[in-house]
Amino acid sequence: MRHMQAQPAPFLFKADDSTTGVLLIHGFTGTTLELKPLGRHLHAAGWTVHAPLLKGHGVTPEEMGCTTWVDWFVSARDGYRLLREEGCELVVVVGLSMGGLLALKIAQHEPVAGIVTLCAPLKVRDPRLSLARYLQYMFPYAKRRGRKADHIEPHLYVYERTPVSCVVSLEELMHNVRYVLPRLKQPALIIQAVQDETVHPASGQMLYEQIGSADKELVLFEQSGHIITLDREQDRLHETVTQFIRRIESNTRSHPNT
Known about the structure:
This is Carboxylesterase. By secondary structure, the chain is an alpha/beta fold.
């Protein structure tokens, strides 16, 4: 594992004059570092922003290997509850990659005001995913393959190997979310990077078609890869997410009992 100067940690940016909160959820083997630029932008827009560090992440592969998607969900849900405890009456959940799946799970259980998914995986490019449950006992760890682009890699805290048991758990989460999608009714912004090297770009369209929300939008980012929060279109991403949250706020004020 390559350590950075900045150790991954949860962050909470408090806003003085707003009761709107934004929960940012990082992805599988990722950390809150990938969400800092988006978090700072949303805080500057006037909202309280919190990003929890999911259990088993930002530590060691061995520690991650002792966790499952349920642990990651609990970490994310606790982040939602922290925002409510901070006085946020309206909370929008934003998730990158697997964090998008966790955002959808939170929306199943909590009264979130809106959902934003960033490159959430309903379909992945790596064919080994379907074999993981059969290989996990013979090969407990999978070596990292390749690096991210030069403008992204230095900002990551990476595991050089991934517990295969956690890959199996990720697949279970994907199946679980597919099952609950039709029951979700909150406004949803689905963002998908066309150049995504990890998640199949068709995931965005699949999610858009399967989610039960009447108010939903699919936005494609033609020049971005999987870590869309750090890629070349991040300014456009910041503005797209900001506009969605502002619309949620406006609609809530106009229809407070809906």
